[in-house]
Amino acid sequence: MTLNRRQFSIAAGAAALAGFQGVARAQSEAPIVLGQSAAFSGPAAQLGIQFYQGAKLLFDQHNAQAGARRVEIKFLDDGYEPDRCAANTKKLIEDDVFALFGYIGTPTSLAALPLAVSAKVPFIAPFTGAMGLREPFQRNVFHLRASYNDETGLIVKQLTHLGLKKIAVFYQNDAYGKAGLDGVTLALSQQNLKPVAQATVERNTVDVAAAVKTLVAARPDAVVQISAYKSCAAFIREARKAGYGGTFYNVSFVGTQALADELGKDGAGVVVSQVVPSPYNSANAITREFAEAVRKAGAGNINYSSMEGYLAAKVLAEGLRRAPGRGVNRDGLIAGLESIERQQFGGFDVSFSPRNHVASKFVELSMITGDGRIRV
After folding, report:
1. Domain shared by 213 and 336, yes or no
2. pTM
3. Domain containing 248: what range?
């Protein structure tokens, strides 16, 4: 069963209460402890919950293997707020976690990045495609997913191919939204176009009235949305109430299943770009593997965000396996990840090197149907 926020909090509390028993065992086994700061509460909570569930599913499999060095995730809730994320990151580094893993969001990851770089702690698979985390190159930072420039480039290419050139942008008023806006603007400029209108929403709010008024008045053919699922869903509903009949495109960070759940039947026709293979298409080997892992665990948690968490954990586990020497240390993990060159993980291509820490440029488009399903 997918954990809702209350269930997740209860489960986390139960784990903490049971922790006394596990301390001696964990110390004797010397597990590798990863630190994660993510939204486990608030309007972006499902992103953190789903990514964590997918990663834990893979690490549970890894830990069950004979002779495997146990991997655990120590997670802290930041509510998708940068200040809380920075405080969490300082605590995790002070607690000497082995690596930082699976951070959710651009503004939060940007708050954590200088702390990770200064402490030389590996920062693995943040759930963001912002260029600000990729340039300049940092030796201890590794990305699983394609960039927002890759995603918005495909979206603009698709729209203009369909003859839709009046493109507006609804974006979150922070580093994430601006990264997506920059991607759309760059892609449009390559075709001598620019956004016909722009409007913002504040992070962790659904106050979209002003944005709806501005963008609907511009009569765009399509609206590209760069925000989280609550505000994007609110914008779609209100724009349609205001008479807007165009199409809506979102980047992957929106949280596809969370957006579909928010919109219900109103989600029909909404397009979302994806940076991992579809968790619903059994033609993909990684999808079959993931679905079987979910079935065996009785987790019932199949969605794009949990698939990304599973893949991110799978790549990290491979980096640990490849680490040179008998005892794994941070430099060994970095060397192990850098040695993953042109490797397929169930059909998902991953390639790192000493000068390239972006594993993939994979992007494809999906569409939400009226019954809440996701079609590629």
Report:
1. no
2. 0.91
3. 148-274
